[in-house]
Design a protein that fits this description.
The chain is mainly alpha-helical. The relative contact order is 0.12. It has 2 domains: about 90 residues, Orthogonal Bundle (Arc Repressor Mutant, subunit A); about 35 residues. It has 5 helices and 3 strands; from the N terminus they run αβααββαα. The chain has a 3-stranded antiparallel β-sheet. A hairpin with a 6-residue loop joins β2 and β3.
Length: about 130
């Protein structure tokens, strides 16, 4: 029996499987069953991952139709998206969050750096006995 980490199809594997094809979620599910018979993804999980790809600015994907008539065609997904989506998945499923996997928005990073510089300057002033 395989463990949970071995039974997950990576985003890169999913992208390679569907790239350039105009498919429904049922067709994608059948293709996954054929290519990765050990996978444990439900149709709902596939749909969530497809919608994440549609919303991402790093992925070029065409969605046509609505509901169970929806079809998805992956044109391109950046390597960064493929890597980060799996990193973010691993960080969400681990019991203890691994902060080395977190990815912050550049604005948040600038704020944190500014805050750190302010704290260091304040500590230096306190250390000189001027405060």
């Amino acid at each position: 029996m395989t463990n949970k980490s071995e039974s997950r199809v990576t985003t890169k594997q999913l992208a390679e499987l569907i790239k350039g094809k105009n498919l429904s979620t049922a067709e994608i599910y059948r293709m996954l069953d054929e290519a990765y018979p050990w996978h444990t993804m439900s149709r709902g999980t596939i749909l969530c991952r497809l919608h994440a790809m549609v919303r991402s600015p790093s992925v070029e994907m065409i969605k046509t139709g609505q509901g169970n008539k929806a079809r998805f065609q992956l044109i391109h997904a950046s390597e960064r998206f493929l890597e980060l989506s799996d990193i973010n998945y691993r960080s969400k499923t681990s019991k203890k969050p691994d902060t080395t996997l977190w990815h912050f928005h550049p604005t948040e990073l600038r704020f944190c750096q500014f805050h750190k510089m302010f704290d260091q300057a304040l500590a230096a002033v306190h250390g000189m006995g001027l405060a």
